[in-house]
Prior knowledge:
The chain has helices at residues 25-38, 52-65, 86-100, 147-160, 173-180, 201-209, 241-250, 254-264, 276-283, 292-299, 310-318, and strands spanning 4-6, 12-14, 18-19, 42-44, 74-79, 107-110, 166-169, 189-193, 213-217, 268-269. The protein is of the alpha/beta class and 326 residues long. It has one domain: TIM Barrel, CATH 3.20.20. The chain is globular. The termini are far apart.
Amino acid sequence: MVPTLKLSNGAKIPAVGLGMWKVDRPHAAGLVESAVEVGYRHFDCACDYGNELEVGQGLKSVLESGKCQREDLWITSKLWNTYHAAEHVQPACEKTLRDLGLDYLDLYLIHFPIATKFVPFEDRYPPEWFYDPDSATPKIEYVPVSIRETWEAMEKLVESGLVKNIGICNFNCQLLRELLTSAKIRPSVLQIESHPQLTQENLIRFCGDEDIAVTAFSPLGAESYYSLNMAEANESVLRQPIVQEIAAETGKTPGQVVLRWGVQRGTSIVPKTSRVERLKENLAIFDFELTEEQMQNISALNLNRRFNDPGQFAEAAFNTFFPIYE
Length: 326
């Protein structure tokens, strides 16, 4: 059994989940089935990943087979940027639920603190970043929707039973403070990029003080970004001498050492892989502990290196300068 982290309302999120970002649609259903076979119960999904229909097929298969029950699973999804206006939040959630074949989500997150112009489902789904990709000069179209408006609509999802927990992604301390001034239902989880080269210690400490759990996406850092040309192989944390040294000391792989560092510092993690042997490896991190010195040595690799930064990729890929971090 994978250990869990207790949320402020008593719910328990598995400490390791499977990230579905960049999982090709033809492989998604089978990957879900394989993951459940080896012990995964936490699946991290999103409208923008474009594979929720196929993930739903995999979930249907494992539930109908009796390999697990719905209450054994933790399914996360995310509200995309185009659906931040109050009138679009519930339809977006219901679309995700239909695709996943579920009656409720365990966790629904605001994907980015970015509100963009609405694209109807029938026009394009998922809508991705461009408002009109066929335009002569396609770009991201910002709309002035407040976080408060979006959050109040998220709260209604909890009240209606569509969602058990709500939270946010890619928020900083100030955005969190602003949200907490008006939230009737406090965020259960903040999901952020975090790995040894982006430790985000102040933000994680602030969340601890506010009883907000943290999930780290891209917990292996650069590995998730090679295929997108957003990272170079020489940036791999797995190649760092200290990580390889600790791997030799513990008898684990460099990847297991880095993932263990992630859960041992109190965050849940959602590494992505499509290989069954790696699925197993990524779960096999609870039979050893890193020493305090080893933890500190890994944390000392911090470079504040953010791979997933709209201030960089939005301009490069979507012709729009759209920073959300200073």
